[in-house]
């Protein structure tokens, strides 16, 4: 199980970081934050949608002291429109794309072509700081699926009053320079008990509320001495908090369960680039003649916020083989999400 968890965490982390290339974006000066936000946005949003998936595979709660152990994967599919972002020169006063293109790939694009960005920052005395750097392309060609995955390793436990408490916990995982962990809690309460004779049918109805927190950090080592960026104690840090509320219904038969839900998602993420960075620029006069070089020292240069919210609807099926369950569902939302997994359930 540990290898499985590590694999999924690493896949998600690779999509988030691409950090071995991100430090070069700092050469964009005041335009670096917007450029980084547009590049990373679909990975951040997709992960938040994935984190809200897989909380329940039936509306039927456990009897008191019943429990289940569930292992699954949620994968959110990035819409085609989010695989590129518009490069509007008016939004980037110091930047231009060498090729002249007006769309660039995001981290979740199949296009891994790097785009050369030209930087020109006026010094106010008739000279400018100039440099060029390569904007990273998409990374999905290097992944097993073109989606943003999140793991679900979850325990559910039956409490009195026909209520389940659920917990997700992925202990700190380390892989090369990536460190990641996940923690989540949820409550599911049965409503069928209030519906009179309906509790004699295979139909179950319940409500669910859940919260998940995930963090990923990447230690940024300075491996490229030619990129004009010197890194000291560099670190990329991502912290994600999501919550969901859902109304669930299921038809629970001995061998098969059909389930669905309607609800709402919300998620917020902060992305920070910490550490000290030395940027080296060429200095040119108004005629383009090089006059030397200059260095600029910056600290903790990136602090971004991402949000994801909206309605969701899920349809799924679970195969019941005694205590052993196999399930799969599909959630319709801004970033549609597929969930598959297995569970051991003792009611």
Can you characterise this structure?
With 347 residues, the chain is mainly beta. The protein has helices at 2-17, 19-22, 32-51, and strands at 67-76, 84-86, 95-97, 103-105, 115-122, 128-135, 148-159, 163-175, 178-190, 203-220, 229-252, 256-284, 290-299, 302-321, 324-332, 337-346. It has a ten-stranded antiparallel barrel with strand order 1-7-8-9-10-11-12-14-15-16. It has a two-stranded antiparallel ribbon with strand order 2-4. The model is unreliable at 1-9 (pLDDT under 50). Helix content is 12%, strand content 56%. It contains three helices and 16 strands. The chain has one domain (2-346). A hairpin with a 3-residue loop joins strand 7 (148-159) and strand 8.
| Structural class computed from helices and strand pairing | mainly beta
Number of strands: 16
Proportion of beta-strand residues: over 45%
- Number of helical stretches of at least 4 residues: 3
Would you identify the regions where 5 or more consecutive residues have pLDDT less than 50? Answer: 1-9
Identify the overall geometry.
Answer: elongated
| Total of domains | 1
**Largest sheet strand order:** 1-7-8-9-10-11-12-14-15-16
- For this structure, the quaternary state is single chain
Overall pLDDT score = 88
**N-end to C-end Cα span:** 23 Å
H/E element sequence: HHHEEEEEEEEEEEEEEEE
Rg computed from alpha carbons, rounded to a whole number of angstroms: 24 Å
- Helicity range: 10-25%
């Amino acid at each position: 199980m540990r290898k499985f968890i590590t694999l999924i965490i690493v896949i998600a982390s690779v999509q988030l970081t691409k950090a071995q290339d991100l430090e070069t974006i700092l050469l964009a000066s005041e335009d670096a934050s917007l450029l980084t936000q547009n590049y990373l946005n679909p990975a951040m949003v997709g992960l938040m949608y994935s984190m809200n998936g897989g909380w329940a595979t039936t509306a039927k709660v456990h009897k008191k002291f019943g429990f289940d152990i569930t292992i699954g994967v949620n994968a959110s599919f990035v819409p085609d429109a989010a695989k590129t972002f518009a490069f509007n020169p008016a939004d980037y006063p110091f930047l231009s794309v060498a090729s002249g293109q007006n769309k660039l790939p995001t981290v979740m694009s199949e296009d891994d072509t790097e785009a050369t960005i030209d930087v020109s920052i006026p010094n106010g005395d008739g000279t400018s700081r100039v440099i060029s750097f390569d904007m990273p392309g998409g990374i999905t060609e290097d992944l097993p699926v073109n989606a943003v995955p999140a793991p679900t390793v979850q325990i559910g436990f039956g409490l009195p009053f026909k209520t389940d408490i659920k917990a997700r916990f992925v202990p700190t995982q380390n892989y090369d320079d990536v460190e990641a962990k996940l923690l989540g809690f949820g409550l599911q309460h049965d409503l069928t008990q209030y519906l009179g004779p309906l509790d004699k049918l295979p139909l179950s109805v319940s409500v669910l509320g859940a919260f998940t927190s995930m963090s990923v950090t990447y230690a940024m080592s300075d491996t490229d001495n030619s990129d004009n960026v010197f890194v000291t104690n560099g670190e990329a840090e991502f912290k994600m908090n999501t919550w969901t509320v859902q109304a669930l219904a299921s038809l629970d038969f001995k061998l098969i369960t059909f389930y669905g839900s309607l609800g709402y998602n919300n998620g917020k993420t902060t992305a920070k680039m910490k550490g000290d960075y030395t940027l080296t620029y060429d200095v040119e006069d108004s005629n383009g003649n090089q006059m030397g070089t200059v260095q600029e020292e910056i600290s903790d240069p990136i602090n971004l916020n991402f949000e994801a919210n909206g309605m969701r609807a899920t349809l799924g099926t679970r195969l019941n083989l005694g205590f052993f369950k196999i399930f799969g569902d599909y959630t319709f939302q801004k970033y549609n999400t597929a969930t598959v997994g297995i569970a051991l359930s003792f009611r």
